[in-house]
Structures
1.
Amino acid sequence: MAMSVNTNAGAMIALQNLNTTNKALETTQLRVTTGLKVNGPKDDAATFAIAQNMRGDIAGMQSVKTALAMGEATTNVAINAAKAISDLLIEMKAKVVQANQAGLDTDSKDALFNEFTSLRSQLDTVVQSAEFNGKNLITSGATALTVLSTVEGSTITVGAQIMDATTLAIDSAILNTNVSEAGTALTAIDAAIVSVSNNLASLGSAAKRVEIQGEFMVQLVDILKQGVGDLVDADLAEESASLQSLQIKQQLGVQALSIANGGPQSIPPALRLSRPPSPLPQPRPPQRLGFFHRTCYTWRDERIQTQDLVVFGRARIYRRGPGDLWPKNRRRARRRSRGVAAGLPAQRRGGAHLAPGQRAPRP
C-alpha cells in the first residue's frame, strides 16, 4: 500500500471501526439502562409495532378488569346485605312462632311484637345501606347492574333483587292481637325467607360470573405482558457480557487509531527534509609545550584530513577562510611534516634553524 502524508487509509479504517464499536456500545448501554432490546421503531420496526398493539390490548383489558372488580364489589355488597336480611327474617320467624303459643298474656305478646317491629326496621336499614359506588341492587326501585366483561363491549348483567319489607310483604304483620294474625305473619315470614333465599341465589350466580371473568382477565393480562416481554425485553446477562467486550474493543480501537495516525512518521529519513549543515568547528589555539607548538587541523572534502605540525619557535599559519590555508603555508606545513617523519635536521625540513627565543619571520 502506498505511503502518503495526505491520505492515511489505515487511520480511516481504524476510525470507521471505532465508530462502529462506539455505536454498538451506546446501543448496549441503552439496553442495560432500559431493560429493553427494542426501544423504538429504529431498533426493530415490526417487533415494535406488534408490541405496541399488544400494549394497547393490555391497557384495554386493564380497564375491563377494573370494571369487573367494581361490579364484583357492588354484587358482594348486595349479597352480604341479603344474608343479613335472611338472618333477620329467621329471627323474626322465631318471634312469630313464639307469639303463636297459646296462653300468652297481652304483655308478652306486646313484647314479642315490639321486638318483631324492631327487627323489621333493622331490615329496612340494611336495605338502605347496601350501596356501593352509588349503586344499590336490593332497595326499592333498583335497576339491574351492567358489568363490562370484554374489550369488545360484552357485558354481564346482575339483576336487581329488591328486599325491603314492603316488597317482602311483612310490613303489615301484627302479632299482639289474636292468633290468626300471628299465623298470617308466620306465612308472610316464610314466604319472605324463601324469596330472600332465591334472591341470594340469583346474586350469587351473577357474582360468580363476574368473579370468573375477572380472574380470566387477570390471567389474560399476565399472558399478554409475558408475550410483550418476550418480544422487547433484553437479556441482561448477555448484554452485560457484550458491554464488557465492547469496552475492551473500544480501548483497542483507540490504540489502533493512534498507531495509524503515527504511520506517516515512519517515512524513511532519506525522504525527509535535510537539515542545514552545521558550521565547522573553530580550531583550537596552539598549545605551548616549551618552544614546541602543536596545531591540529581537520579538513573535509578536498582539504587536509589531519595535520600535526611541529615547529621550532612560533610559526603562524594563516587561513584565508573557514577551513582554508594559504597555499604557501600549506606547502610549508606539508614539507615540515614530511621532514619530521623522516628524522631530518631543521635545515633539511624546509625551514631555518631558530635559536631559543628567536621568533620566526613573518611569511
Note: The chain has a mean pLDDT of 77.
2.
Amino acid sequence: MELKNLRTFQAVVDQGSYQKAAEYLGYTQSTITVQIQQLEEELGIPLFERTGRRMVLTQVGEQALSQARELLALAVRETWGLSPLPEIARREGGKPYFPRHEELHFNLSHSGALALCALDSGPVGADVQIIKEWRPGLPERVCSPAELAWLEEQPGLWPAFTLLWTLKEARAKESGRGLASSIRDIRIPLPGPGLLEMDGLWFRTWTGPGWAAAACGRGGPPEEILWRRI
C-alpha cells in the first residue's frame, strides 16, 4: 500500500472533495482519482461515495479506517500503557506520528480484512497485502534485475511478488519519504528466513493463507506477529 496513496486518502477525508484535496496536495484532480482507485483496488473495497458536492467515506471505508485506528489504540495501550490513543499528526511526507510523544514510532497498513501495526523506539515501516493477481507487466516495471531473477526461481509468481512489494512498501514507509523515487530503486534484501539486513536496516517477512507482510526498522522486527481480533 503506497504511502502517497494513503496521504491522498487522508487529504480527501479532510478536504471533502477530490478537487480540494488536489489543491491542498498540489496534484491534478486526475492524479487524486487514480491514487484513490489504486487504494480501493488494493483494499478490495469502495472507500468514497458522492453526497452532493462532497466525497464522504462509504460504510466499509469508515470500517476500514476505524479498524486500523482500533488496532493502533490496542497496540499502544498494551505496549506503552498509553490510553486513550494520543493525538496523531502527519509529517510533510504524509507519515503519521504522535506530536506529544515523538520518541514513540508507529506504522499502520491495511489490506482486505487485515490490518498490521508496527511499534518501535525508532522509525519503522510495515505493510500487509492480500495476495492477488497484479497488473500484467508490473513486476518488470518495479523490480530490479536481481529481484526479477529471484522471482523466476519461485514456484508462484504472485505470492512471491507480493512479498517483494511488502518489503519495498515497508522500507518506503520507514523512511517517511514514501515512494519519492522509482519503486525499482528501493533497495530491499531478497526474501528469506529470519532477520534480513540491508543498509543498516533490519527486515522481516511473514506469510499466511492468502496474505504476505513485512516490516522494516533499525531494530529487528519480532519473529511472530501478535494477532488480535478487532
Note: DSSP finds seven helices and ten strands in the chain.
3.
Amino acid sequence: MAYSCTLLLVCLILKVNQISIVAAAAAQGTERNPCGMDDWMEMKDRIYDLISSFPDAHRWPARLLQAGFHDCFVSGCDGSIAFELDRQENIRIDITVHFLKMVIDSTCVSLADALKLGMELSMELTGGPPLLCPLGTSDTTRAGPKGELPHETQNSTVIMNLFRRKGFTDEETLAGNYAGHSIGRFGAGAFAFTPTEDVYDNTFAKYCMNGNKSETQFHALPSDMKLAKDDANGIVAEFGRNMAKLDAAYASFMTKLCAM
C-alpha cells in the first residue's frame, strides 16, 4: 500500500472491536507514563480497527511484528526505532512506525507501548500463542546502538551467539526465527515466506528442514536455511513435527522479547 494511502486511512476508525484484554505488568500509570489499562485497551482496538480497514490488511500483522522486533531487540522496547529508520535493516519499517506515531498522537500511549500492542495483535490475528506484554514504558529520545540485529548473510554461529547474549535459549531463538517467518514477506515485499503469509504455523520450519526446492510457493532467507542445516540438536526438525513444541518455545521467545 502506498505511504500516502496509509496516512489517509489512519484517520478512519470504522468500528469498536473488542479484542482480548491487554495485560500489563506495569502499574495503572506513573508520572512519566500516565496511561492505564483502559487507555491501552482502547489503543489496541484503534490499531486493529485501522489496519482492518486497509486494502492490504492481511500484511499488517507481519509488519507490526517486524517493527516490534526491530525496536525491542536493539536496546529494549523503548521506541528507539523512531530514530533508527535511516538504517538499512529498517527499510520499509518506516511506514509502520509513522502509522503508529500518528495513531498515538495526542494520547498518553508511548510508541514503545504501541509497538508492543502491535506485537500482541500480530499474534492474535495470525493464530499465534497468546502474548501479554508489560506496558507503561516511556519512549527514549535517542537511537540505540548499531549492529544489534541479525542479518540474513550471517552464519549460524554469529546469529545464535547474538541471541544468546540477549538472554535467549537456542530453542527460543530458532522458534523466533521459524515462527516469525511463517508470516510476512521479504525482498521489498516481493516474496512471501509461505503460501499462507498471514497464518502462523510450522510449515516454514518443515520447508527449511527439508530444503525442497520444488516447493516454489515457499521462500527462505540464506540465514533460514543455514540455521536449519546447522541445527545439530534437531530443534527445527522437532518444530516441524510438533506444533505444540513450536507454540511453547515461540511463546517464551515473544514473552522475553517484549519484556526487554
Note: DSSP finds eleven helices and two strands in the chain.
4.
Amino acid sequence: MEKLGKQTIKFNAPPTIVDCASIVGPKEAQGPLAKYFDQTLDDEFWGEKTWEKAESKIIKETVNTVISKSGLATDDIDCMFAGDLLNQCISSSFGLREVNIPFFGVFGACSTFVESMSLGAIAIEGFANNVLCATSSHFCSAEKQFRFPLELGNQRPPTSQWTVTGSGAAILSKNGNGPYITHITPGKIVDMGITGVDLINESEANVKELVDLSFGQTKLVLASPEDSTINSIDDLTSDMVVATEFPTLTKKYLEEHGLTSKIITLSGSTEIAPLIGIADLITDLTSTGTTLKMNHLKIVDVILESTIKLITNDNSFENKKELVEAVSTSIKGVIEAERKKLVMMNVKKENLDKVKKVMPAMTGPTISEVLSKEETVAVQAVIDEDVVFELVNDLRNAGAKDILVVPIERIIWK
C-alpha cells in the first residue's frame, strides 16, 4: 500500500469483500431496506433478559451468519475488528468471545463499521489472509446510556432520531473477485467545528466564534409545572430543586439571582423530572415550546438564546489563519446570499433617476452603458428576496425593461 496526498491510503493489492450479513430489529424491518437483511427480529429482546444481552446475541449471530455464507472455517479468519456503542465495547466483547478469533475492539460510534473495514483492509495488505469486520448497536441500550432512559417513559416526537437496532458484518480477503476496497481516507481531528452557543457556554470552552450559521435557533429556559405558583424568577426560593442537562449555565443563572437551589444533573428526559417528583423546576432547551407543553410545563424565564456557530481554537486561529479565514469567508458568503437576489434591467437614461429612487440596493445600483441606438444603461443591484414581487412592478412603472431576477451563490463583502 502507499500514501496518496496527506491522508489517503491506496492498496496495491486491494482486498475483496467476500461476503456480508446483517440482522436488524423490528423497526428496521418496517423500512424500505427490509428485503436486504438476512434476518429481522420480532422484538428487541430476542429471548434475552436485557437489551445489552440481546445486542450481544445479535452481533454474535450476525458474525456466525457471515462466516457460514463465506464458506470459510473460523480457523481461516486471522483476526476480527469489531465494536459497538456501549462502554468498553461490551456487546461485541461478550458476544464474540466464543468465536475464538483474535479480536481488536473498535469504538468509533457511528464510524465503527467503516473504521473496522479500513483497519481490516490494512491488515489484509500486511499480515492477514482473511479478516472479519463487525459492529452493532441497539436502540434501547444506546438510549439508556446516552440519551433518554426508556424506563422513565418519556414521550418522543415523531421527528426524533432512532439508533439502529441491528448488526452488520463483512469478511475481507486477499483472494476474490470483488467488490474491492481500493482506497481509504481516514478523517482528522479538526481545526474548526460547528456547535451551539449553549454547548460553548456550558462547557466554558475557550474557542473563537467565527460565523453565526443562522440556523438551530433555540432557547435555554427555566420552566415550571403549569399548575405551580412559580411564574417568575422572583417566585423561586433556595430550597427548590432544579433538574437540568446544563448545570453550569443553570448554576450561574441562579447565583445571579441570589439563589443557591439544589441542581440535579440529568442526561435526558429532563422535562418529566417535575412529574415524577425529583425536581420542582427544570432548565431545558426549547425551540417551539411544544415538548414543554406536552409535559405540562410553562416557561418562567429565558436564560440563554442559542444558535449554531462555526468555531475554531486559538492555536488554529493563529497558526492556520489563512485556512480558517478562507473557510469562514466561503460559508459567510453563502449565508449572506441566502435571502438575496440580483436584479438586472435596461433603463433609458431619461428614466434612470426614477428607477434609482425605487431601487433598494445594498450600496447603490451598478450602472453601465449599453451599446444601443437608444440612450440606454444597464442597471443591476442586490436586493432582499422578500421585496422582489413589489419591486419588479415598481421598476416597470418607473421605466425599466428587460428585467431579470437571478439567484446569488454567495456574497463576499470584503
Note: DSSP finds eleven helices and 21 strands in the chain.
